[in-house]
């Protein structure tokens, strides 16, 4: 009798723990995706995105690097290749900082060269005295020649572009 009560208690405890774990996972869910972040201190150094479709499937991975001022210096994205069971490079964004400016350079992975192509797109953000974007210019390269694509002077437009890059 005692053994039966103990086993029922253990089963109930296991169910409670599982339900709390599932609730924590659901809190991270964004649509049909779940993220897992790896941090060093207060900085996110890696983020894996899982697709939720009955089971969890690897989807995308992002690796981040920072400078000594804890500003992001690069963001590298990888796509999961289920057939080969490995992460394949996808794109990279490099961030450079100067007085009153942030420059983002975007490059795509070239499988034939096994390297990132020369910059494909570049965005330059002008910052105000509060380090908020107030203007931005976006460049795209075609046949190794830069072509100015967009220029914005409204803060809202810059914030939209910043969120698209990150």
Distance between the termini: 59 Å
Question: In the residues, how many domains can be counted?
Answer: 2
Question: What is the CATH architecture term of the largest domain?
Answer: Beta Barrel
Task: Estimate the global geometry from the Cα principal axes.
Answer: globular
Query: Helical proportion?
Result: 10-25%
Radius of gyration equals 22 Å
Proportion of strand residues:
over 45%
SSE sequence, one letter per element: HEEEEEEEEEEH
Q: Assign the CATH class of the largest domain.
A: Mainly Beta
For the structure shown, list the relevant keywords:
2 domains, DUF3836, alpha+beta, 10-stranded antiparallel beta sheet, 2 helices, Lipocalin, 10 strands, DUF3836 domain-containing protein, disordered C terminus, 166 residues
Structure description:
The relative contact order is 0.08. It is globular and about 50 Å long. Strands 1, 2, 3, 4, 5, 6, 7, 8, 9 and 10 form a 10-stranded antiparallel beta sheet that branches. The longest helix has 27 residues, at about 1-30. It has 2 helices and 10 strands; from the N terminus they run αββββββββββα. It has about 170 residues and is of the alpha+beta class. It has 2 domains: about 1-30; about 30-165, Lipocalin. This is DUF3836 domain-containing protein. InterPro entries: DUF3836. It holds the Pfam family DUF3836. It comes from Bacteroides pyogenes JCM 6292.
């Amino acid at each position: 009798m005692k053994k039966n009560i103990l086993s029922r208690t253990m089963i109930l405890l296991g169910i409670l723990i599982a339900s709390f774990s599932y609730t924590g996972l659901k809190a991270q869910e964004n649509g049909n995706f779940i993220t897992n972040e790896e941090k060093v201190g207060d900085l996110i150094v890696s983020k894996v995105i899982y697709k939720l479709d009955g089971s969890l499937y690897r989807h995308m991975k992002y690796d981040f690097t920072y400078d000594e001022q804890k500003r992001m210096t690069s963001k590298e994205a990888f796509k999961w290749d289920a057939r080969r069971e490995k992460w394949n490079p996808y794109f990279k964004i490099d961030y450079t900082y100067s007085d009153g400016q942030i420059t983002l350079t975007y490059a795509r992975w070239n499988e034939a060269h096994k390297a990132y192509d020369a910059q494909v797109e570049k965005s330059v953000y002008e910052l105000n005295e509060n380090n908020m974007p107030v203007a931005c210019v976006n460049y795209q390269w075609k046949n190794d020649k830069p072509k100015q694509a967009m220029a914005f002077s409204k803060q809202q437009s810059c914030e939209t572009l910043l969120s698209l890059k990150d």
